[in-house]
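for the writeup, i need someone to sanity check this before i put it in the appendix. the sequnce is what the collaborator sent (i think, or maybe the updated version? ugh). structure was predicted straight from it, no edits. if anything looks off just tell me and ill rerun, i have time this weekend
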Amino acid sequence: MTKKKFGVCGSGTMGVGIAYAAAAAGYDVRLYDLNDQILAKAGQTIDAFISKGVERGKLTEEGGKELRERVVTTTDLSEMSGAMIVVEAIVERLDIKQELFRKLEEVLSADAIIATNTSSIAVTEMANGLQNPERVVGMHFFNPAHIMKLVEVIKGYATSEEVMQRTVDLSIELGKTPVRVKDTPGFIVNRVARNFYGEAFRIVGEGAASHEQVDRCLKSVGFRMGPFELMDLIGVDVNFAVTQSVYGQYFNEARFQPHLIQKKMVESGRIGKKAGGGFYG
């Protein structure tokens, strides 16, 4: 028996992972995006997740089939009607997110949560201008979202304590480890990670080491992935956008400054695994 409806807007890497996690927890999921081609690719990714789960003995064939049936894709935003929560996982642009939130307010019930998976944009700013800003909350998953346990639950200026607690409880239901976070630039992880990436870029930019050497050094002391491997997984373009956002929000503080290498990688289209290659491949 499925639980209440769980909405996800955006069927990219993060959106698919969040949708899978919700379906695995028993929720009836609606996964929204702009066109059927994008959604077809998302469905294939979910199928691959299920196949891997069956192969590893974490899912039965029947369990995998039931999980897949709980995920329904759609290009119609009105399909979010009746959802207890909708998690936004679209492009990191404030204006586009705010436009989506305004549309969601038209179809969601007054007590439904509107959550954003933003990496760095202020939750307070996203909620500004909405009819019910108290129901907007940050719910920041980490890639791959269906595997990584950490979820940052971010309280905007207007976010109610009830919504915060419901989001924390929901995160636990999804098998995650929620951490309450203030609405500060980069929150916790991305604020700390800017130095992880930034120093790596400076080392490579100065010619002190190659990106392969930097990754090997960090893995030798316990990191599962080096910064350049991780950027290829997440997306160099995503990493660059987050760095620019945090840098701007901290009034161009030097330690958060983006690097020219990031810019050139994005300009060349070498943005990671999703594009066929980045620093590797």
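The chain has eleven helices and eight strands. The chain has a mean pLDDT of 95.
thx in advance!!
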